[in-house]
Recover the amino acids of this structure.
């Protein structure tokens, strides 16, 4: 494959950053690859792991020197500090991108500290596992996953194209949408579900002592479906909730209204209303499956990600 | 295997009832098996499918004649009507059990219509798939699953023992607990999660039109974890919610309080509080995995039911 860029810099070597490094090395997506991380321990681990062509340096400033494309893989809360550190060291025409779960914050925190002649093209690969750290990175993490690119208004077309091609080279299906739309959509598809999963787990926890560990034992009844996402990194999610606050609290209010409607129907023994509210879900779920299968190809992905049709506890 | 009972009657040939029929036939758990269903169409299908030793009859009254054990596999809302129908036709010493997701309602609705010399021993196998109908039944549906048996106070020990042995013969791990405790535990592990899943799906639906189908496309972000259980049978769930109303609304209130606490911390930008609330979840999830693996054996089950560790979207 023809490399997408000459020199790539990745700031941050957690799960995502080190997965990109592995994939870039494996598929020669860049000719040169420089990586760094704020933690000396992580830098040491990465150097020891020997991630392909990656060269480890000790600072963001050093990493971005002469880089054509810089991908920030740091916690959302550190965007501002990072931009301040690297801004003066970027070459003219460099592209700065990221992988964060919220996009408004990228613009808000990074843009003010980047030179005029640098292109900010935020992105969000919808991929990950429950693990963290450079040892957990996977070269195929982004294959057959969506990557949402959110170009700013008036963005340089070539710069946007480069970021799109970069993610396609990593195996992703790329879609572009405005920053604000991304944050609204993700509030519903990801942030709210996580908020709820965390809470329901907490509720279960508080009851557990009283109900003699039964909750854990019988968690296959639906409770467990929440636990996968409830195990996510608390720091990362703190930053997501705080940095997409408006959209998150907005959908939360909608959710509370919907939940109240269903709870009220139960309270009033309104059998018809309950069935009505529950039935909508079933039709839509079929649509989710269809859309997923049409939109994202890969038999392997289907197997891994398919709704557990055989033998889940579906009581 | 030595049969557990001589003559077994199963009322209802949906997913659960027909799965029991298959398993009983396969493993000779009863010497004689009589099944029925309220729907002529279902009876016809079952007869055509030829489920092992099962003999299809046209009514509950006919089915329970001379039966040692009767397992009711009908919607929870039909318990009363069923008990009224079969009460007079049960032989002395017969055991009546069920498979419903709520246990208080079984006692409330069936007990008044059953003769004194008949033993009511409610049970709840924690098993199922998203499918329904007699064609979807599986002989191994209950293998390595929990089955909770809820003996009434002063219950006949032999009758309880028979029901426990029955479910062990079907491959389940059996646990006994009081009726009320079952309903509280299931409210948290199953009923509340379903309530929430239905609601969050509804919230997503309402937004979808506005957000151009993106919600469905990007649902792997956590939203999809809810959709499996949101696809459940609306009629069944209406009956569960209505028949475990007190416990469900009780945990719902707890959940709302917890959610409000987290939402409030986000609203106030209380970073520390957010991390504190999110961190508890992570520790507990590990405990869930451990408890599940200790308590329920079967490599096959582990594979099927294991938390999707490889390549879920865990953003």
């Amino acid at each position: 494959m023809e490399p997408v860029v000459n020199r790539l810099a990745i700031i941050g070597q957690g799960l995502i950053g080190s997965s990109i490094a592995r994939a870039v090395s494996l598929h020669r997506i860049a000719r040169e690859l420089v990586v760094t991380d704020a933690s000396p321990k992580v830098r040491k681990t990465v150097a020891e792991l020997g991630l392909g062509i990656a060269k480890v340096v000790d600072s963001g400033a050093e990493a971005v020197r002469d880089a054509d494309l810089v991908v920030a893989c740091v916690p959302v809360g550190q965007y501002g500090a990072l931009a301040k550190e690297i801004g003066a060291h970027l070459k003219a025409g460099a592209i700065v991108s990221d992988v964060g779960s919220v996009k408004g914050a990228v613009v808000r925190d990074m843009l003010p500290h980047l030179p005029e002649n640098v292109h900010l093209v935020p992105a969000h690969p919808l991929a990950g596992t429950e693990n963290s750290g450079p040892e957990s990175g996977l070269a195929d993490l982004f294959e057959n996953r969506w990557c949402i690119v959110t170009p700013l208004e008036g963005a340089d077309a070539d710069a946007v194209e480069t970021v799109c091609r970069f993610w396609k080279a990593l195996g992703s299906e790329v879609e572009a949408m405005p920053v604000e739309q991304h944050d609204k959509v993700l509030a519903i598809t990801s942030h709210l579900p996580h908020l709820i999963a965390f809470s329901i787990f907490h509720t279960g926890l508080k009851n557990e002592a009283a109900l003699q560990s039964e909750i854990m034992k019988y968690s296959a009844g639906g409770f467990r479906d929440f636990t996968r996402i409830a195990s996510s990194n608390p720091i990362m999610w703190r930053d997501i909730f705080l940095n997409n606050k408006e959209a998150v609290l907005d959908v939360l209010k909608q959710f509370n209204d919907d939940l109240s409607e269903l709870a009220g129907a139960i309270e009033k023994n309104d059998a018809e209303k309950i069935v009505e509210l529950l039935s909508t879900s079933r039709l839509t779920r079929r649509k989710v499956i269809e859309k997923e299968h049409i939109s994202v190809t890969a038999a392997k992905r289907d197997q891994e990600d398919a709704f557990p049709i055989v033998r889940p506890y579906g009581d």
In short: Chain A is about 50% helix and 10% strand. The longest strand of chain A covers residues 5-11. Residues 293-315 of chain A have pLDDT under 50 and may be disordered.
